[in-house]
Design brief:
Elements lengths: L2 H26 L5 H26 L20 H24 L3 H17 L15
Helix pairs in contact: 1-2, 1-3, 2-4, 3-4
Amino acid sequence: MSAGLRSQLRTALASEHAAVYLFAAFISRTSPGSLADALRASYDFHRAARDALAERLAALGDTAPPGAAPAYDLPALGTSAAISAAALAVERKATVGYGDLVAGTTGTDRTQAIAWLSATAVRELPFGGAPSTLPGIS
């Protein structure tokens, strides 16, 4: 495995660990409804992406992929608007990260990165994000 690909996949995995943690925290502070449903969908997506990245690194021979941190900084989450803003920030960060992954990969890794980029860009919308012609470009 090339060092560049390994580094990019490891960076994406570390970001997904953070997203899973944060979305779980956001869900725990939300009443049932459309916001909770959108948060749950994002949580499920990021958990699946995290697992796929870990599997890809293992398939490439990475025996010590990055694990989750013990905790991550949580923003103030006192209102639904604050939770939506925090969720939007996480999705935007993921979109930019997957844009970087698209730029640095080829073949099936790039195809997967494009799918994740598209999915995270769409996941911004329920949290107040706006469609972008070129998502993931910072």
